[in-house]
Specification:
Layout: E1 3-4, E2 17-21, E3 25-29, E4 35-39, E5 44-45, E6 48-49, H1 57-71, E7 80-82, E8 97-100, E9 104-105, E10 108-115, H2 118-127, E11 129-130, E12 133-134, E13 144-150, E14 153-154, E15 163-164, H3 167-174, H4 176-199, E16 202-209, E17 211-213, E18 219-221, E19 231-235, H5 251-257, H6 277-295
Parallel strand pairs: 1-6
Antiparallel strand pairs: 2-3, 3-4, 4-8, 5-6, 7-8, 9-17, 10-13, 10-14, 10-16, 11-12, 14-15, 16-19, 17-18
Bound molecules: adenosine-5'-triphosphate (ATP) and magnesium ion.
Magnesium ion (MG) binds next to loops.
Pathway: Purine metabolism; IMP biosynthesis via de novo pathway; 5-amino-1-(5-phospho-D-ribosyl)imidazole-4-carboxamide from 5-amino-1-(5-phospho-D-ribosyl)imidazole-4-carboxylate: step 1/2
Family: Belongs to the SAICAR synthetase family.
GO molecular function: ATP binding; phosphoribosylaminoimidazolesuccinocarboxamide synthase activity
């Protein structure tokens, strides 16, 4: 079982057509045909959208994405048009709204990894490969890879698990030319992100991008970029291969959900319980810390 514990009812705004409720974002189309992406404070873990919001998360992720789009502007064009809240929308959309070019999205989760962990580590332990790419012997959880790799995944529906696929499979699905462009652009954006993060004492272990084509056939980066929801960021001074690294992402939530304190069995049919206030506060603080460390600005 998985999905939304409580499926939210989207806000209706005159002049906007609601298109989709994603795990984290609400998507609308405005009268100009642009995409209005509104990030919520929702969070997901173990393929569930949890019943508890993390206050300010939508604004933090939106502001961090916008900052990154600027950092990346000379590497790849992005989908942002403005951050204007549409007329008639709730005031609390401010800071978490992006008006974007509506792209024809390529249905591939474009993952780049510079370090071994997570699903990459599981495949490596079994086959000495990640997404079919051969890697040297002797790597452990948290090891830096000889060079960053492109490890695409298929995009799963809400409640389903993304699945790692080989580059050849991506080429079969989207064509050789698009696959090559996705790989090249993913690695270029990862490289810039890694360098910027490294200057701030943060390791960008891996990250996921989504790309689409605009009306001119140009590949554009969409969605959110280089946030703790789409990336693994590790404090560089605590990096020690051989075990799980402390991270700026939702690990606090996953740890609590799998602890005895939650009373929840992730393999049961039961939805996860609400998060206690202290877990919410710690997660919120972690998101703010990531924002402040990366951007060098104080939150709000
Ligand atoms: N510029 C764009 N044009 C069209 N679609 C976009 C653009 N940028 C992002 N998207 C899509 O908007 C959605 C963002 O919502 P969110 O991240 O909450 O969804 P998700 O849970 O990851 O995926 P799903 O949409 O399948 O539920 C994604 O489906 C993403 O592919
Ligand atoms: Mg998403």
């Amino acid at each position: 079982m998985s999905g939304f514990v409580d499926k939210p009812e989207p806000v209706q705004v005159p002049g906007l057509v609601h298109l989709h409720t994603g795990k984290v974002r609400e998507l609308y189309q405005n009268e100009a045909g642009e995409l209005v992406m509104v990030a919520s404070d929702r969070t997901s873990a173990f393929d569930w959208v949890l019943p508890t919001d993390i206050p300010d998360k939508g604004r933090i992720l939106t502001q961090l994405s916008l900052w990154w789009f600027d950092q990346l502007a000379d590497v790849v064009p992005n989908h942002v048009i403005s951050t204007e809240v549409p007329a008639g929308a709730p005031a609390d959309w401010k800071g978490r709204t992006m008006v974007c070019r509506s792209l024809s999205m390529v249905p591939v989760e474009c993952v780049a990894r510079g370090y071994l962990t997570g699903s990459g580590l599981l495949e490596y332990d079994e086959h000495r490969t990640v997404c079919g790419l051969a890697l040297p012997e002797g790597l452990v959880d948290g090891s830096e890879l000889p060079a960053p790799i492109f490890t695409p995944a298929t995009k799963a529906a809400v409640g389903e698990h993304d699945e790692n696929v080989s580059y050849e499979e991506v080429a079969r699905q989207v064509g050789a030319e698009t696959a090559a462009q996705l790989r090249q652009t993913t690695l270029a954006v990862y490289g810039r992100g890694r360098d910027v993060a490294r200057d701030r004492g943060i390791i960008l272990a891996d990250t996921k991008f989504e790309f689409g084509y605009d009306g001119d056939g140009t590949l554009v980066i969409g969605d959110e970029v280089l946030t703790p929801d789409s990336s693994r960021f590790w404090p560089a001074d605590e990096w020690e291969p051989g075990h799980a690294q402390p991270s700026f992402d939702k690990q606090i939530i996953r740890d609590w959900l799998t602890s005895d304190a939650s009373g929840w069995d992730r393999h049961s049919e039961q939805p996860p319980p609400p998060l206690p206030a202290d877990v919410v506060a710690r997660v919120r603080a972690r998101y703010i810390e990531a924002y402040e460390l990366l951007t060098g600005s104080t939150w709000q």
